[in-house]
Amino acid sequence: MRGHIILAAAIAVMGAGQAMAGDLIRVKTGKSVDAAMSALQAAVEGAGATVFARVDHAAGAKMVDMDLGEAQVLIFGNPKLGTPVMQADPRAGLFLPLRVLAYADGDGQVWLAYQDPKEMLEDLDVDDVPAIGMMQGALGKLTAKAAAE
């Protein structure tokens, strides 16, 4: 049943430029990495969630005289969703807050990528926590909004 739901969701959004690879979900965008990440940050803040950090991996590489393609991670969350998950299993703190990576692939195509929360937390004792489905929905909506032109 779970596989059918995931497949149906993937088919429903493929037209919007989303691709799945295992438990990683990628959303295609025509924006630059920086513009996509700024749009995601604005969407997250507009939704009332908290941005904890924005990590620029390329800038970190430059600090050690190495080159890396543009890649940024936004770390964010909503305690109303994350707290019930951590109450069910404190080990969820290893995976929360949520993260979305903006990066350009070898062809220069920019993607927003994140791990499906249900898959990410599947080894923990959180099967019956409704907030996980809410996280899935929020990530889908936020990344779609950020990727839109």
UniProtKB/TrEMBL annotation:
Database matches in CDD domains: DUF302
Alphabetical keyword list: Signal
Keyword Endoplasmic reticulum in record: no
Keyword match Nucleus: no
Signal peptide coordinates: 1-21
Domain of life of the source: Bacteria
Name of the protein: DUF302 domain-containing protein
Organism per entry: Antarcticimicrobium sediminis
Chain segments annotated as transmembrane: none
Residue ranges of every copy of the DUF302 domain listed in the record: 55-117
